[in-house]
Amino acid sequence: MKISTGLFLSALPTTGALLSIKTLKNKFGTTATIGALTFAIATDSAIAGDVGQGQKIFNANCAVCHPGGRNLIVPEKSLEKEALEQYRSGGRSEESVMKQVRNGRNSMPAFGGRLDDESIADVAAYVIKSSEEGWN
Question: Can you name a GO cellular component term (predicted)?
Answer without folding.
Answer: chloroplast thylakoid lumen
